[in-house]
Specification:
heterodimer; A: about 350 residues; alpha+beta; FAD/NAD(P)-binding domain; D-Amino Acid Oxidase, Chain A, domain 2; 3 domains; 7-stranded mixed β-sheet; 3-stranded antiparallel β-sheet; 10 helices; about 40% helix; about 20% strand; B: about 280 residues; mainly alpha; two-stranded antiparallel ribbon; about 65% helix; transmembrane (chain B)
């Protein structure tokens, strides 16, 4: 992956990847249908329908009632004991249990089909752009998707200016996407932090519905899948294979506690990175400068690929901290000089 | 062209005499404007820049940079003006593009026109910026590289690109790495003046407090240093001078603390609800 600073200084981020390691790009349309068919083959009953409402039970042992519509016409209901809400950022399940709200970022993306010689450049390369012209608090990207590229950006605080930022990212890759054809435009909210309530009664939220998206990189797919699995395992364990009724305490103990213990540090660390490095152009220059360092790259990829904050050697960590401070100081000095300049 | 239009406006603006430079935000601006005064009296502007370049500059006055900076800024842009004159006839659209987000309209216009006439030139042009990095050979002063000028040039480049973001390209990648500037160059220019200031403040506060304590309690300096409470006060005073350099820093530190703990609060919110609900109703 290549990261471009606001002044187009580029670093190659991936020098330390081994041959079996890579940064995955995915097409949601393919992944989603794969997951559904895998669930079906594992024994789940798949009902293609739209959930319209969920009735809360009047007593701790009564079932939840899920109202849904089939094929836009038939209205049905289903009585269930446990509900796991995996319905994304605009979760209906979360609304029905009063889980509370969260701030969202908006991610905007355009899929562009490039001419062959330009696509060859992106065959094994993703790009990431930082800068105030691209986003005030996030990054812009060019991600290859098999036979086309996705060019996009996102923001939390200036959602109404998202089109301007999209123009900014397109200008930054102007030469590389010239001659390309726009095939799709998509946008979606991305939660910034977990909801105030993730479990209530016998309803649990997972993935985007719960708000498990890291800051800084905006990664949510792994955490969505993993939280689904952890929650599922929690239900199975607490209900002893489906024979015992569970309650909120079981869900908290088996799902939330285990999840928080495992991943809250990762989330906190990425939040810190975002606060330190995404604040200003000077900080972003420092980020790109630091990303050129091999130790930083190795630690980043080990943490990203294996989803555990990697433990390096203390001496190298100390060196990295000193380099971080040094880069931040140098780039902030340049930033202060820049403020005094009138060009 | 967009940047050429900007260059003409800045050259015009900067040549409205001396009044332009007096409101610069530094105490040593008086010296800079007097330095530039002698040069602005000369009628020929472009020649002025070319002669300004090799002048020796005092190294430890940070804001004197204003005059050579202005000079070199216009020198760089002046080069663009001297380039193919047929690229000039496009003043009206870039003038309004400058008002909005610079690169959107003007950049597109600039690109098309440029491609017809000249080799594609990216927005930032400077004779010392060669092949995507600063050519250190051009920064020589008295036989060694003038790192201060390199730092200034990079600041100018970044400011230029911040205001006129330009497309990254595969043919002209930027390969400049700030780590080529040695650490002592940064230290000499930025750390040492500020360290001097802070040490001065600490010394003044220390002397005054020592005198005050001695006067109030009769405890002399040596005895103060042996006392734990006084040593704590000393530590607080030094820390305070380091962290709080302007009045705004107090607010900044408070805000930083709030931000640090905010994300954590959001994560723990679900557990807080648990405490409230379990105390309010027993299920």
């Amino acid at each position: 992956m290549r990261i471009f600073s606001p002044s187009n200084i580029a670093v190659d981020f991936g020098k330390t990847l081994k041959s079996n390691e890579f940064i995955a790009m995915l097409r949601r349309e393919v992944l989603d249908s794969f997951l559904r068919s895998r669930a079906a083959s594992a024994g789940a009953t798949v009902i293609p329908a739209l959930v319209t409402a969920i009735d809360l039970p009047p007593s701790p042992t009564a079932p939840y009632t899920i109202h849904y519509t089939l094929q836009n016409t038939y209205r049905r209901s289903l009585a269930v004991d446990v509900v796991i809400g995996a319905d994304g950022a605009n979760s209906r399940v979360a609304k029905s249990i009063g889980a509370g709200d969260y701030t969202c970022a908006i991610a905007f993306q355009e899929r562009i089909k490039l001419p062959d010689e330009k696509m060859a450049y992106y065959e094994n390369l993703a790009e990431m752009y930082v800068g105030n012209d691209v986003s005030p608090d996030f990054y812009g990207w060019v991600f290859p998707k098999c036979d086309h590229v996705a060019v996009g950006t996102g923001t939390v605080r200036s959602k109404q200016d998202i089109k301007l930022y999209q123009k900014g990212i397109r200008d930054r890759v102007h030469h590389k996407i010239k001659g390309g054809k726009l095939i799709k435009v998509e946008a979606h909210p991305i939660p910034e932090h977990p909801r105030p309530l993730r479990v209530r009664g016998r309803v649990a939220l997972v993935g985007d519905a719960a708000g498990y998206v890291t800051k800084c990189s905006g990664e949510g797919i792994y955490f969505a899948a993993k939280s689904g699995r952890v929650c599922g395992n929690a239900v199975v364990k607490a209900s002893e294979g489906g024979y015992k009724m569970i309650d909120e305490c079981d869900l908290r103990r088996e799902y939330l506690k285990i999840w928080d213990k495992e991943y809250v540090n990762t989330f906190r660390f990425l939040d810190l990175l975002q606060r330190v490095f995404y604040g200003s152009n000077a900080a972003r220059e420092a980020l790109v400068e630091l990303c050129g360092d091999e130790y930083v790259q190795r630690m980043t990829f080990e943490s990203y690929l294996y989803k555990k904050l990697a433990k390096g050697r203390v001496f190298d960590d100390a060196k990295m901290v000193m380099n971080t401070i040094g880069s931040l100081v140098k780039c902030n000095i340049l930033g202060r000089k820049m403020e005094g300049l009138i060009l | 062209m967009q940047f050429q239009a900007i260059s003409t406006t800045t050259t015009m603006a900067s040549f409205s005499p001396l009044t332009r430079f007096t409101p610069t935000p530094s105490s040593s601006s008086s010296s800079s404007s007097s330095a530039s005064a002698s040069h602005h009296s000369k009628p020929h502007l472009l020649n002025t820049f070319l002669t300004l370049r090799p002048r020796p500059r005092p190294s430890n006055t940070p804001f004197l940079l204003f005059s050579p900076l202005k000079a070199s800024a216009d020198n760089g842009v002046g080069t663009a003006v001297e380039q193919p004159p047929q690229a000039v006839p496009d003043p009206p659209p870039p003038a309004e593009a400058v008002g909005t987000n610079g690169s959107i309209g003007g950049g597109a216009v600039a690109e098309e026109v440029k491609e017809e006439e000249v080799v594609v030139v990216s927005g930032f042009v400077d004779p010392k910026w060669v092949g995507g990095t600063w050519d250190l050979k051009q920064f020589h002063k008295n036989g060694t590289t003038d790192w201060d000028a390199v730092i200034d040039a990079e600041a100018r480049r970044r400011k230029w690109l911040e205001e006129n973001p330009e497309s990254s390209s595969n043919e002209n990648p930027v390969i400049f790495d700030t780590s080529i500037i040695p650490w002592w160059a940064w230290m000499k220019r930025f750390h040492l003046p500020e360290a001097e200031l802070l040490n001065g403040r600490a010394a003044m506060v220390g002397f005054f407090m020592a005198y005050l304590v001695d006067g109030l309690t009769g405890v002399g300096l040596v005895d103060q240093m042996n006392n734990f409470f006084c040593k704590t006060l000393l530590f607080v005073a030094v820390g305070g001078v380091l962290l709080i350099r302007k009045n705004e820093d107090v607010e900044t530190i408070k805000k930083l603390w709030d931000e640090t703990t905010f994300y954590d609060k959001q994560w723990q919110a679900t557990w807080k609800e648990d405490e409230n609900s379990s105390t309010s109703k027993k299920e």
